[in-house]
Amino acid sequence: MTLSIRNIIPILKAQFQGDREVAIIDSVSIDSRSLQNGENTLFFALIGPNHDGHEYLSELLEQGVFNFVVQQVPDALVGKANFLIVENSLEALQTFAAKYRSNFTFPIIGITGSNGKTIVKEWLNFLLSPDYNIIRSPKSYNSQVGVPLSVLGINEKHNLGIFEAGISTVDEMANLEKIIRPTIGILTNIGSAHDEGFHDAGEKIKEKLKLFPSVDVLILNKNRTIDAFLSPKVKTFTWSSDDGKADVFVMANEKPDQTELRITYQKQCFKVVIPFSDQASIENAIHCLMLMLYLQYDEAVIQARMQQLYPVEMRLKVKNGIHNTRIIDDSYSSDFQSLKIALDFLESQKQYKKKTLILSDIFQSGLSNDELYAQVSFLIVTNQINRVIAIGPTISGYQRKFPNGLSFPTTQAFLDVMDTISFANETVLIKGARHFHFEEIVTALEEKTHETVLEINLNAISHNLNFYKSKLQPDTKLMVMVKAFSYGNGGYEIAKLLAHHKVDYLGVAFADEGIALKQAGIELPIMVMNPESTSYQSLIQHGLEPEIYSLKGLNAFVKLAEEKRLKHFPIHIKLDTGMHRLGFMEADMPQLIARLQQTQAVEVKSILSHLAASDSMAYVDFTLDQIKLYKTLSEQLMEALKIQPIRHILNTSGISNFGQAQFDMVRLGIGLYGVSNDEDEQKLLEQVATLKSIISQIRVIEPGESVGYSRRFMAERLTRVATVPIGYADGISRHWGNGNGYVTIKNKKAPILGSVCMDMLMVDVTDIDCKEGNEVIIFGKDPSVMHMAKVLGTIPYEIMTSISQRVKRIFYRE
Q: Taking the model in full, what pTM does it have?
């Protein structure tokens, strides 16, 4: 893409303010935090329910960005840059992408559905790439913003496009259809995802089908429900396992590790074997097979390629590595668009100043090798990568273009000498095309721990954060609690993500938590809620802000601050309005005010209190009384000291139930991690944490035999028992054993047999087709931490914070 501002103005029907109409644009951005923004970037200032891109224009201008699409020009920036003024910046982005798409006439495959879109897209890319130069959506860029950004990656060397389109409510798909303009359509499974955005299933189906009004053919599973909504003008190519009127008849013979598909098409029969046996993968594979049939691929080619299908890893994972490193695992794809995304993710998650990139040959860029690796080099330099390890016969030839570049022809050649290469105190992004088997590099660099992991979905955290932001007034600040290792989910990584989202404050319980975050590079202000007097010295040293809740604590801190000759060091005054845990009581106010009037060593940064029953509507009057008393006492303090501090009393439940008391800031806690006390609100949050393990061993016991300590389980039938390497030392309550709890294996419940041991538990898999090494869900969607807490007579907080630090945390972004 190379256009001038002069070319773009009429496309967007924009009003122009500036003096450089000839400025050249070669990239588009919506993310002010990307290091890839530069003088040739056109930045679209999007406005969403929880963000406004216009707020970052000054910052971008300082970084060298000069060209902006805006809905209004900030007064302070008039005359300082090129501004293309439009009514709606998102619609402008979509219009720009649609116009750009019109420059290309090669076939475009458009994929939509409730499930399977990304997998079908990635499998089609694998199956068709030997014959086409493909441009496809990176990762799952299928939204109102993701689709235009994906389409803007097309260049003149591509000859096939594969783009997915996702919607969450009505009147969205028409926008995406104008941008993608597919010539071939694929409708995947229609499930329950985003049901809340539609009146009923029929409305959802009709909206999905709006992607396909002008396709040459629509590929789908023949289904009477969907047939009822299809336009007769749309030509279909259908498959079915039970409807003989479909164009292709498919019978699936499922085995433990593979499925044999028996295909009947145009009076011909043949077999295809795929290396999966679950229903979702079978259906996704059939959609891919249908496209190959439509494109008239030879049966032998279909059989050979589909037998090589592989599990699609759609997530960037963050893991602990050897020698104090952090590993970002993106070891299953290597294309130019997804490299940009991975580098942005690296910047948002880096823990160390030093950054290393391990990169394989890049395929299907549509560029010559010289053009491609010149652009890759520019990306790497722009993202301030300190070292590049290039692996592959092609990229090795461009080693000199990369900072501190090392090159190896193959993955094995690198592994052979890896021990001689230093990896320490750095963040390592590992990104490679699948056939380079970079998972072997991940394994070699990953910190060795046992096979139980807690997976943290960073997308879900972002979703939940934005959900609660949407409840706030525009000027309300947001403190997010990351105490207790972010409720067991992992402190630094989540704090880094919150910094990326520009929250106002972080809150921790004790000084050591805050110190660890500061030492890891977190620059956000951090309030320490329970500072011990012995930690005051360290608090000051690391710039942490203590919550002061007693005269004794205030006197001790002021004394130290005065000894250090500090001026206006920020502190937070805690008032007790009814929680009766910590805080100044109403009777303490005269002494508190007098002491604060006597010193300039500290400054009251905020005044806070804590609601005791904001989650229970049975105590509404009590909560309202707390809020009233807080308002009275805080105003008394403000008037006496002549200050205007930040005031905050609402916790997560308070945000939802007492929004009228937002004051200047709110404190978001457990809600960020996907847990609400309100059942209706719970449905709108996304699950953040999934605790997983594996089956270590399976044995069969006879009736009358027992399992575990004290023989608390006695078999009444021939029983298959699976042992799972997780126990109460990992945080699983012993009360969850003896049939009270269960795990999930192959989407089926496996009851826990006997007592939970220190490092293991045993489950009944008699009725589950599983084997050693299979994945085990300890908690996640099922069982959820809410369900576990209910059975155990506790709260989700306890379940989550009990997970031991010996359990490896893996952070990922979908």
A: 0.74
